[in-house]
User: Which sequence fits this backbone?
């Protein structure tokens, strides 16, 4: 059920990427405005509200917080289908972010409570499959509906489906019991104090943020690049993007969980070192794929790096869970997500869109291609920060 809800989390979050071109034409938007809708509009309240909602989840019921959040973000996703201009769409995307703020961090904590340390990276990786599966579903479903009906219908359908799932989730999912000594006692300043004193937390958070800034930016703009430069229809683009996410994304996340549990059990540095190596290894192939001349070559070149840049999820999320005592996990996860999403999700699509507008006078239809290629260099920054985090992780670890 957690995986299903996370799938809808990313479906609702990423469906705008496949619908970007018809939304842009219908609402008369620039690439900069479109990038803001894909990033800043969503991330502003999603990132900041995640901490108080995680604190509430740690003090009360994590399953109830997730249930209510699912209902809120699904309702606002449906409202995106009736937006008439940039301002309305921006406000509705803010609402999607408000709802999704309460979904992820409490889910991390529920999973960490339910699985022992030696299986935790794999468990969190299976949960994280909601990212590629949800994004792929958004691409496939959104592309099909937009091509055969219209883009507004796509938002309405996926939003209403989420509202149907919310009550079923609460009926099935129960919070595991927590120690009575820690229940309801969660001074926020204490959690921040523990995390702030650990260099590995900052390096993991900013490393993930650099990788997410690139990842979210590329995920948002890649469908537009495929349509603009390779001449595919919106339905064909949905199939291209969906197949890429389901193959590369799923393989990378599962590989990350396996590597985290296998190598991390021997040496905790590998929880950060494995993602560092994968980030650096995947970057050159991604850039070559973006600059390639056909969609067939691009798909082949994207497959391996698409897997490699997803490896970080299981190992890094597990490491963050072990930087604080068990009863602080949801709040610690939200603190990590605040940095990761405010920078990564908030700036990624916006910066690439603004860079595309800036390059357009000189490069015309190729501007978006070069903007994405430049943004991919952020994966190298992410790799460097993860490598530095690996040197401090063992010292900062809490059993």
Assistant:
């Amino acid at each position: 059920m957690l995986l299903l809800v996370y799938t809808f989390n990313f479906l609702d979050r990423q469906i705008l990427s496949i619908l970007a071109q018809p939304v842009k034409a219908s609402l008369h938007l620039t690439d900069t405005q479109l990038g803001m809708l894909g990033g800043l509009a969503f991330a502003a309240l999603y990132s900041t509200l995640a901490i108080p909602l995680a604190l509430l989840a740690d003090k009360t019921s994590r399953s109830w917080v997730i249930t209510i959040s699912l209902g809120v973000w699904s309702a606002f996703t449906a409202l995106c289908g009736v937006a008439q201009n940039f301002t309305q769409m921006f406000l509705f995307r803010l609402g999607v972010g408000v709802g999704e703020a309460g979904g992820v961090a409490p889910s991390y904590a529920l999973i960490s409570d339910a699985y022992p340390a030696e299986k935790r990276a794999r468990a969190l990786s299976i949960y994280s499959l909601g990212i590629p599966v949800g994004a792929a579903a958004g691409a496939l479903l959104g592309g099909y509906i937009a091509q055969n009906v219209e883009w507004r219908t796509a938002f309405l359908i996926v939003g209403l489906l989420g509202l149907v799932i919310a009550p079923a989730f609460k009926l099935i999912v129960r919070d595991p019991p927590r120690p009575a000594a820690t229940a309801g006692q969660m001074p926020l300043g204490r959690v921040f104090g523990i995390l702030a004193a650990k260099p590995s937390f900052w390096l993991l958070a900013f490393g993930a943020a650099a990788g997410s800034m690139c990842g979210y930016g590329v995920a948002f703009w890649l469908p537009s690049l495929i349509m603009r430069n390779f001449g595919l229809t919106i339905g064909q683009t949905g199939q291209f993007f969906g197949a890429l996410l389901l193959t590369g994304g799923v393989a990378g996340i599962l590989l990350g969980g396996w590597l985290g549990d296998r190598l991390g059990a021997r040496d905790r540095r590998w929880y950060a070192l494995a993602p560092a190596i994968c980030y650096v290894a995947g970057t050159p192939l991604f850039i070559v794929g973006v600059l390639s001349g056909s969609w067939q070559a691009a798909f082949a070149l994207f497959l391996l790096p698409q897997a490699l840049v997803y490896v970080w999820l299981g190992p890094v999320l597990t490491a963050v869970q072990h930087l604080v005592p068990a009863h602080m996990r949801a709040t610690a996860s939200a603190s990590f997500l605040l940095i990761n999403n405010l920078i990564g999700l908030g700036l990624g699509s916006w910066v690439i869109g603004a860079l595309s507008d800036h390059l357009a006078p000189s490069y015309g239809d190729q501007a978006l291609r070069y903007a994405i290629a430049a943004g991919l260099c952020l994966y190298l920054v992410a790799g460097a920060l993860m490598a530095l985090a690996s040197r401090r992780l063992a010292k900062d670890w809490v059993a």
